[in-house]
Amino acid sequence: MTKLKGFAGKILHIDLNNLTHHVLPTQDYYEWGGGHGFGAKLFWDLSEDIEVVTDGRDPRNVITIAGSPFSGTNVPSAGGRCEVTNMSVGLIPRNRFTRSNFGGHFSSMMKHAGWDAVTVTGKAPYPVYIDVRNDHVMIRDASHLWGKDTHETQQIIQEDVASVEVASGWNGQLDGNSFGRTTQKASVLTIGPAGENQSALGCLIHGAGNAAGQGGNGAVFGSKNLKAISFIGTGAVDIADPEALIKARFKTRDFYAADIDKSAEFAFPSLGGKPEAITFSTMPTGHRVSSCHGCVNGCKQRNAIGYGNEVTCQTSVWYLGAVRSYKFGGNAKLSLAKTGVELTEDSLYAGDLANKLGINTYPIMGLIPWLQKMHAKGELGSGKEIHSELPYERLGTREFADQFCQAIATGTDIGAYFINGIVPGIQQLGHSADVDNGTLHYPYYGMPEHGYDPRAELEWGYATLMTDRDMNDHGLNWIYWTVNLAKLEGIDFPIPAEVLASRFVEKMAPYVQADEVSAMDYASHNMYSEVLARQVQWINHYGRFWKNSALMCDFRWPDCVNTHREDLRGATGNDEVGEHVWWNAVTGEGISYVDGIERGRRIFNLDNAIWALQGRHRDDAKFADYIYDHKMTHNKLPTYLWPATNGAGQWDYREMMGRQHSREGVEEWKSHYYRAEGWDTATGWPTRSLLEGMNMKDVADRLEQAGKLGNEEV
Amino acid sequence: MTTNKNSFEMDTGRRHFLAAIGGAGMLIGLSGTAYALRDEKIYIKTSGGALVVDLKKCMGCGTCMTTCSLAHHGKASVSLSRIQITQDVFKSFPQDIEMSTCLQCDDAPCVAACPVNANKASEDFGFVRDIDPVKCIGCMQCIEACPQTPKRVQWNPITRSAQKCDLCLNTPFMEEQGGIGGVQACKKVCPVGAIGFITELPDQSTPKSYVVNLRNENWAKTGKTIED
């Protein structure tokens, strides 16, 4: 393939067993796009024994942190995302190759330093960190950093990297035989004590609060004795058509993005979303909205109160229910019905605490109300059935948050039970029934519910079953937020349900036809339909390339509905500012929107081949029992409205609460999905004809050798 | 690389100019040069415009920087950008962000320091202070002369010459006409409108006078302060 622009040209391979590094030419990986595609192919190429490694903490695990051609550019809401891939820690029924993703400025700095990705194998004999300054790579002793929190670690490294000032406010960095200059601080990705202790709840942190945690990424770093990776770069990304890139960015600004100077009115929160911190409790006005590199409108914040910077989205609310419970009574379950400013500061404090210790806040949020309940029943506390010295009577205070987070991060006190994950810990304590009956909301693979119950938000549950983890794709999910918050505020949602559904379906090429509006119909009579399988197929393939590999932000892409456009049609797939416009301007290729999705299909099938080798089978893909056995009765908002038809075929936003799945129905839907993908419906494994059709004969051969090749449909 | 939209007409060389002062100083400022005589002192004529910034509005996305380097150089870079956004994400608002633009100083010490008149202010382009990379000999005296931190004149290691904000006068990779009266890429691309353009330079005694409040009531509606 012709050398493409947009790529730095080098992938950094760190071998911690030997404390050496190697350069892999990016050109060998072009066809995988970047991000997840790079991670999957590098995992395939560099893993010694895919079949036998069963835990992400095995030194043979391959962890890759990858950027894309968009990293370090001004492609809207794509310049700063970064993909992490590795074998997981703490998932059930088995660990598997998995992914996470974080924002900020790490991938952009990595690109400006001249690297497309860094992949790490082996285990260092002592704690180390990787210090990259342009093309100069050092594997350095991290003994002075071990034990420090994520913020302090980054600050120490940043100070060291910026030690040579060459002009006032500019520091100098070696760049080949030359000397580059920058005003910027090094971008650092690090673990805190949770990762050091190899807790499944440990995550990677970059900046104040950009985190990658689902799948135990922090534990993987810790198991490798790897404290941090730092990049500083003074270089540039070559762009194929810079004029086209600037032109498209200006158009995005003028016609698709929110212009806050002109209006603060409702805007559908994908590409057209307003610059607003996504913290679900009311913020003090003394803050700024902050963003990742190149964002079209940010979603994070930094505060005047002295803490809580970049504590965003779920991290801002993991302790909110507890704070409310302590101050006003009631249980500690999350509710966003009333979120006054009196709850905010303690919630931000707790978010900050977790970020500093490097704790993944999703799994611990669901644990808090369970601990409260067990304490109230007299089964948890000092000398009780579950012994713990934490001050449970003060659950909801900063004091409790401090002690709880320390215990989780260090694997002491109550944290000792959960070092391998929440669900394994609950099982160890003899309370599996609470997972099965839905007292604890961990609906799939031992992972916490993301906040979107599979009984209501069908695509979230289904896509998770068909992939490796809680899918974390908000492409359709913005419907939930906009419709249900409007309901909560007592206002009518401005877009009729059928129009909204149509706008989404129009973007689902090539799997759903533009007139198949039923692909968005979440009515019970359509729950297990074949068209919903194709809708999820679009989500998975679109996501694997445009979001996970090209690294367009999940919060801003796809842009299916855009309220700044008269016809409400978003940027996705269009020839003005659609996904492929950016790809072609940056790289110089000439691909279409659907070509990108086809690349996503190939990457997704390589994933599935890896999962098959790791033991995955159709039988793994199932929800926790409560999803089938109990009706949905709780949600963080009082309603769960979604576009749906009634028996007469009339569209409206209809209530999804009170619904449950049937095992037979889900199995029927899975069969639809496997057929749509061309996978063996009995096992879920890919077939030879499918893989060879995507130029992956070597993958088919390997699966056949392992006895994991799917049978062709007869 | 496309052709530069702006044809440069170089003004009189500084050394030539200084030599002329001895005999015909009173003519200065009357013949379209970049220099003027005021209060018995020689001044470089005031720039017809400059950028101003709102430090409380910026969200630190860096889009202005990569767009600046794209417009001027065709590459996405932070080091090559003529506007520098620096951040310390661990500091509290509003001390966490600094936006560093060229002030287009009235006395333009960077122009005065240039020994070859590569750093100049031309009447044809509204007296914006800019550097001709071809004429620049790479002596870095203009960088030294800039009184701001971080220095607003940068070193370009690729061309081995100095560069500075020219208000997008010389932007071969931007379709729009730049410069005074045209488009400034950083201002146009800023998602939240944290960069403004003024045609009357503010008080020159402090760079803080280039910090303005660009937030209106819509900003307040999204829960953020609009106080200075």
Computed CA radius of gyration of chain B, to the nearest angstrom: 18 Å
Quote the CATH topology of the largest domain in chain A: Aldehyde Ferredoxin Oxidoreductase,  A, domain 1
Secondary structure category of chain A: alpha+beta
> Domains counted in the coordinates of chain B: how many?
1
Binned strand content of chain A: 5-15%
Query: Total helix count of chain B?
Result: 6
Uncertain stretches of 5 or more adjacent residues of chain A = none
Q: Sum up the overall morphology of chain B in one term.
A: globular
- Average per-residue pLDDT of chain A, rounded, comes to 97
- Give me the secondary-structure category of chain B: alpha+beta
Organism (chain A): Shewanella canadensis
GO molecular function (chain A): 4 iron, 4 sulfur cluster binding; electron transfer activity; metal ion binding; oxidoreductase activity, acting on the aldehyde or oxo group of donors, iron-sulfur protein as acceptor
InterPro entries (chain A): Ald_Fedxn_OxRdtase_dom2, Ald_Fedxn_OxRdtase_dom3, Ald_Fedxn_OxRdtase_N, Ald_Fedxn_OxRdtase_N_sf, OxRdtase_Ald_Fedxn_C, Tungsten_al_ferr_oxy-like_C, W-dependent_AOR
Protein name (chain A): Aldehyde ferredoxin oxidoreductase
Entry summary:
The complex is a heterodimer of chains A (714) and B (228). By secondary structure, chain A is α+β, with helices and mostly antiparallel strands. In chain A, strand 10 (170-175) and strand 11 (178-182) form a beta hairpin.
